[in-house]
Amino acid sequence: MAVQEMSRGTHTTACACEECAREGHRRAVAAFLEKRDEFAAGQGVPAAVAHSLGASRQWVSDELTLSARTVADRGREAGNSWLYVFSRRAVLAVWIAAGVLLLVQVAAALGAGWSTARTAGLLAALLLAGLLTAAARAQSVRGGLLAPLVGEDNRLSASKAVPTAWVVLTAFATLLLTLRLAASVPGPERQALYAGLALDRALPLLSVVVLTSAVAVLVRRVVCVRIMSQRLQKLPADRPRGADLLTDDAGRGSLPDAQYVLVSTVVLAYAAASLARFPDRLPQLPWALALLVALSAAVYLAAKYAEGSRPLVLSVVRRREPGDLDAAVRPGDDIEIRGVGFVPPGAQTPEMLARLVVRIGAVHVHVPLVPVPGGFTNPSDAVLTVPVPAEVEPGRTEIQVVTAAGVESNRCTIDVAE
User: Are 402 and 224 a contacting pair, CB within 8 Å?
Assistant: First the structure.
């Protein structure tokens, strides 16, 4: 107990270690949830604004927005700390894998004896581990070995992870054959090693490497073009997660991503087994497996091209409370905007929900957060409720929604009465 107290006392308020960052994030989340549930129960609202429904709703929304920003800041700090720690642990994992290979080679050599191929395998593993360590140190702030796999939205990208795995396997196999060729003498063994590098045998493997790399480039191009044309809404995540390889931006399971990763992993395991069985040649893939990867990549690329849509306003109506009379829309009334795509994937956090804006004529109205136990009733992906400000002039007025991703919806015209 004394040791634990001493270790806690060494951390200060300015400490940026992983433990303090995660603890700060947990505390910020707990404070936000407590405040949200308190407001949802009708408590904590000052008497100065409690008499007005609109004023109290706006005050609650502002307080929740400030608390949500604190949660987001703490979450980003925890994410940056996690990336730094992961970069160090990933390098350690690479060297542990090299050590495991050494133990396996020694165990296998007890019966068959040590050979030049085993030495070349260990040297290839050490060289590759050294190269990966150098690359990780150059990108330690962004996650080390994870940096090449992280997309612009701070999520792990399946389109980058798959070709990276194939490149690493191919690089290891090439290093292995290069070292064996350097240690070989003229004769049948050297001729067999040269035959293992023949194009006709390596063509399926090279086709998969080229195909998956081309898919990564095409996906990046498609995503960039669709974002620039406002046909796709992208929001950054706090930090990369392993589940990103199998899910969409909202954290839901994604069939195109999952099947691409699964098929590639299975075929990659086959290639690794082929290399272990025949270390004198590049992994030889059957054309059937290469075609399977190609079909999986085509499905993945088609899904990336088809995903995403702009927010769409279908209709705008005056919100009527029970007991209220039917009437035209006037300044001070609440309007209900019905449509789709108001909350893009990844924007379900309170901070992102608070970024929703409705443009009513020339006035920008921030969508208020309306809490209930366990969540919010406003805003939602299909319905937004906002008040009509007094600054809106009577007459025909255009309504437009601007999402947290900065994408603008179509314009919908309503009549505002005096």
Answer: no
User: Across the strands, what pairs with 412?
Assistant: 399
Token pair 């399946």 in the structure block, residue: 158
Q: Which of 150, 11, 135, 20 lies closest to 83 in space, CA to CA? A: 150
pLDDT (tens digit, 9 = 90+) per residue, 106-126? 777 776 677 777 777 788 888
Asked if 267 and 297 touch (Cβ cutoff 8 Å), the reply is no
How far, in Å, CA of 74 to CA of 354, rounded?
A: 17
Residues contacting 161, CB < 8 A, separation 6+: 149, 245, 261
Q: Is the peptide bond before 379 cis (omega within 30 degrees of 0)?
A: yes
Side chain identity, residue 9: G
**Which two tokens mark 343?**
């909350």
Q: Is residue 337 helix, strand or coil?
A: strand
Structure token digits, residue 116: 């030049």
- Gap between the Cα atoms of 120 and 193, Å rounded: 13
Which residues neighbour 373 within 8 Å (Cβ) at sequence distance 6 or greater?
37, 40, 41
Phi-psi region of 211 (alpha: psi -120 to 50; beta: other; left: phi over 0): alpha
Q: pLDDT tier at 14 (50, 70, 90 boundaries)?
A: low
Please give the single-letter amino acid code of residue 293.
Answer: V
Query: Which are the contacts of 376, defined by CB distance < 8 A and separation ≥ 6?
Result: 350, 353, 369, 370
Q: Can you give the pLDDT at residue 259?
A: 95
Question: Which residues neighbour 43 within 8 Å (Cβ) at sequence distance 6 or greater?
Answer: none
Record the pTM: 0.82
Long-range pairs, 98-107, Cβ under 8 A, ≥24: 98/122, 98/125, 98/126, 98/129, 101/125
pLDDT over 70 at 34, yes or no? yes
Query: What is the rounded distance in angstroms from the CA atom of residue 286 to the CA atom of residue 344?
Result: 41
Give the separation between CA 187 and CA 391, rounded to whole angstroms.
90
The pair phi, psi for residue 73, each rounded to 5°, is -65, -45
Q: Residue 223, Cβ neighbours under 10 Å: how many?
A: 21
Phi/psi at 337 (5° precision)? -100, 120
